[in-house]
Amino acid sequence: MKIAVVEGDGIGREVVPVARQALEVLRPEMSFFPVDVGYAVWEATGSACDDEAMRDLASADAILFGAITTPPDPDYRSVLLQIRHQLDLYANVRPVKGPGFDIVVVRENTEGLYSGIEWTEADRACTVRVVSRRGSRRIARYACGLARGRSQLTVGNKANVLKSDVLFRNICLEEAARAGVPCSTQYIDALALDLLMQPSRYDVIVTTNIFGDILSDIAAYLVGGLGMLPSANIGRRHALFEPVHGSAPDIAGRDIANPVAAVRSAALLLAHTGDAAGALAIEHAIEAVFSRGIKTRDLGGTAGTRAFGEALIGELSRLARR
Ligand code: NAI
Ligand code: MG
Fold it and tell me: Which part of the chain has CATH 3.40.718.10?
């Protein structure tokens, strides 16, 4: 199995190596190859992800991804959006798990307000929010597939205001009825608050692109911040795994970033390849390190990224030898 590794920028370069080591311990047969994408590449070449890099990503069985710093260029088009579009990674899956709650945010990942259809005029700028029947149906089916093995589906939407969300909500309701999944709908603004106040009421939440982006960052509040949340970007042929957080330039290069989100993304990669035991081992190793009081600064601890990583890899090696 060939894994493309994009460290990217900022703390991506610090947290991805820990995630990669975790995979190396658990799956020695995996092979890894680096792909250069991001701000540094943009500075050198004017393009943050060229055709060759895109071909390399497409050739991998899975992609382990860090984060990319957005360059200060008014014409710059987000690399990650480009990758999601080109590899058709239509489902962005973000599990949020803690004591008393087990939530998965399923975010439509190829259209909505991130359609890429936008322009700037003299006195205004426009971005087109595209919600297609096909795009909604496939994300609804994906979410229903997840919810079927669990308990219920909530459709986060703003259908009281947006026609595009009337379509999205209705298709989700249809698909849930067809799949026999208990389903309710909720306006996204009220949902954002209720998710924090009553997280145990939620299971699988499906929503459109930007709402899912915002909702999953908010949900990080439930588990200790952005350093904790992983994500999977899933398509029919390709899959990319990355922390929910960005490149965090404010803390980059200081050995203080929390690598848990990246390591959990590696766990999602393992689960995606059918290795549920490997994914569970990673979760157990994280628990074991935390229970020894080893935590990074964002969680109130004093461990650096490298020290936390070493403790984690130590635990994983012990678990893997059993
Ligand atoms: P961010 O997620 O990088 O950082 C937000 C805040 O959370 C910062 O204070 C940061 O220090 C903290 N934080 C994030 N990850 C952490 C970790 N692992 N451990 C400890 N603290 C952590 O978002 P921000 O600041 O809005 O964006 C920074 C850059 O990243 C921008 O250029 C943005 O465009 C890019 N970005 C890239 C993403 C990607 O490549 N997937 C996603 C989000 C932002
Ligand atoms: Mg985000």
Answer: 1-89+236-322, 90-234
DSSP of 80-134, one letter per residue?
Answer: HHHHHHHTT--EEEEEEEETTEEEEEEEE-SSBTTSS-EEE-SS-EEE--B--HH
Per residue of the chain (322 residues), what is the pLDDT tens digit?
999 999 999 999 999 999 999 999 999 999 999 999 998 888 888 888 889 999 999 999 999 999 999 887 777 778 888 899 999 999 999 999 999 999 999 999 999 999 989 999 999 999 999 999 999 999 999 999 999 989 999 999 999 999 999 999 999 999 999 999 999 999 999 999 999 999 999 999 999 999 999 999 999 999 999 999 999 999 999 999 999 999 999 999 999 999 999 999 999 999 999 999 999 999 999 999 999 999 999 999 999 999 999 999 999 999 888 7
What separation in Å is there between the alpha carbon of 193 and the centre of ligand 2? 18
Check pocket membership of 16 for ligand 1, CB cut-off 6 A: no
Does ligand 1 lie within 6 Å of residue 224's CB atom? no
Q: How far is the CA of 163 from the centre of ligand 2 (A)?
A: 24
Instruction: State in Å: Cα 147 to ligand 2 middle.
Output: 23
Q: Which amino acids are annotated catalytic?
A: 114, 158, 189, 213, 217
Relative to the alpha carbon of 261, which ligand is closest? 1
| pTM beyond cutoff 0.85 | yes
Residue 250 CA: which ligand 1 atom is closest? 11
CATH topology classification for 1-89+236-322 = Isopropylmalate Dehydrogenase (3.40.718)
User: Per-residue b/e over 81-112, b at no fewer than 16 CB within 10 Å?
Assistant: eebbbebebbbbbbbbbeeebbbbbbbbbbbb
| CATH 3.40.718.10 given to domain 90-234 | yes
Find out whether the beta carbon of 226 lies less than 6 Å from any atom of ligand 1. yes
SS3 31: strand
